[in-house]
Amino acid sequence: MLAGYQEDLAYIHDVGFGAFSSESAPGLLEILHQKGINKGLVVDLGCGSGIWAKALTQAGYDVLGIDISDAFIDLARKKAPKANFQKASFLRVTLPKCDAVTSIGECLNYQFDQHSLGEIQKLFAHIYESLKPGSVFILDIAELGYVSGMNPQKTYSQGQDWAILLEKEEDQKTHQLTRKMTIFRKIGNLYRRSEELHRVQLYKGSEILQQLQRVGFQVRVIHGYGEFKFSQAQVGFIATKA
Question: Start and end of every Methyltransferase domain (predicted)?
Fold first, then answer.
C-alpha cells in the first residue's frame, strides 16, 4: 500500500486546494434535498480534511467520514467535530446502513491501495447493499485525457507558508496518471521538505456508468455539482437505489 497525504501535503491540500469541496457543497446538498434526503447518515468515502463533512453536519446530517490518510483524519476531526471519522481503505471498510454515500474529488481513482475495475464494482455492490431504498451514491472520477498539451507537465504553486512542485504524466498505455510532488512547508523559521508520489488510475466514464448499473443503480451522469462545474476529463454520477 502506498502512503499518501502525509502531514505536510494534507495541510497544503486543506489550506490551498480545498475549493473543490467547499464550492461543491451547495450543489451536493441540493442533490440530497431533491432526493428527499433531508436528514440521516451520510458516509463520505475519501473525506480528506473534512470540508464536505463540516458542511453536512452544519446542514443537520449525521456523518461518517472514511479516509486512508491519518493526517487527513486528524484535520477532519478538528474541522468537523460533530462528525465521526474512521481511518480505513474504502475498499476494505464495512459500511453501515445509511441514507447517502458520497465520494468527491476523484477519490476512487487513487491507487494508494492498488485495485482493479473489478474491485470497484465490488465496492459499488457493497454501497448498494448499504443504502436504503431511494437513497443515493454521488461520486465523480477522473477520465482519460486528464493531461492535455505537454506530457509530462510541471507546475508550481505556493501559499503563505508552503510551496509545491508538481510533475504529472499520463501513461497512454496503462491509463495511469502519476503525480510527483516536492513539498515545502514552513515550520518555525525554516522550511521542511518532503516528497510524495501518487498514482491515479484513469477510467472511461462509460465504464463506471456500466459498473454502477450492473449492481442495480439507476444512474444520471452529471458535469458538476449545481453551479460548480467540473474541469476537463472529469465526470460525475448520481446513482439511486430503486
Answer: 42-134
